[in-house]
Amino acid sequence: MQTLASRKRRLREIGIEDLVHLSFDRALASLTPAQFVDQVLVDGVGAACVVVGQGFRFGVGRSGDVDTLSHLGQGRFETIEVPTMMDSGERISSSRIREALLRGDLVEVRRYLGRDYEIEGEVVHGDHRGRTLGFPTANIDLNGVSALPRGVYVADAFIEGESVSRRAAVNLGVRPTFGGEVARLEAHLPDFDGDLYGRTVRLIFHVRLREERRFDSVQELKTQLAKDVEAARLWSVSAQSG
């Protein structure tokens, strides 16, 4: 649901100094619990304490659990199991958050995460069609990550190197009016005029304004884009909570 860059940044924000990223490939998936502990946790990173969530499973065929980890780590590292977070008597899981994202229910996502959903990526070149329409956009490289449904969103944008946010109207979709097929994330920043190519932009999503749709004419599209931008300008947290 998040790019690796987003995860790294959030981990740094809570005080994590070093990060080791393991790619879940066939070799890693084939390790037995004992091999994983020996090769990855002990020899690989020299773990002194391993913190896992309730119901944690590891090793080939998910054959190891928290008790297995604690037993294999005895005398080598401490094992701590963190209890599951609950909401209205139901477990808050990544699957539950993903389902809310797929519905575009950002209010529910915010309640589960304790923060707004965000995506960040590098601004890359697109087909520059937005500029010809009068609404230039920053095309953000999703790096294959997007759990949100297609549509138009209100977001706040943080541009690399700047300390303040800018309001953005964000379109996630294939641009059906122009026969597009590949989903793109395009952010229009009404109050920005400059070059963003190669810079990282972080988008904090607030609300979904509408679903993606095909327009019968370019003028009809431009009219709707103007409405989307104005709605993004006027949107506020208090308006949503009310």
What does the model show?
The chain is of the alpha+beta class. The chain folds into three domains: 24-83, no CATH class; 85-115, no CATH class; 117-241, Elongation Factor Tu (Ef-tu), domain 3 (Beta Barrel). The chain has nine helices and ten strands. It has a six-stranded antiparallel beta barrel. Strand 1 (49-53), helix 4 (66-73) and strand 2 form a beta-alpha-beta unit. Helix 5 packs antiparallel against helix 6. The model has no long low-confidence stretch (mean pLDDT 89).
Largest sheet: 6 strands, antiparallel, barrel
Question: CATH architecture of the largest domain, please?
Answer: Beta Barrel
- What is the H level of CATH, i.e. the homologous superfamily of the largest domain? Riboflavin kinase-like
Backbone structural class = alpha+beta
Report the portion of residues in β strands.
15-25%
Distance between the termini: 28 Å
Low-confidence stretches: none
**Helical percentage:** 25-40%
Q: Give the overall pLDDT as a whole number.
A: 89
Shape: elongated
Q: For the largest beta sheet, what order do the strands appear in spatially?
A: 5-6-9-8-7-10
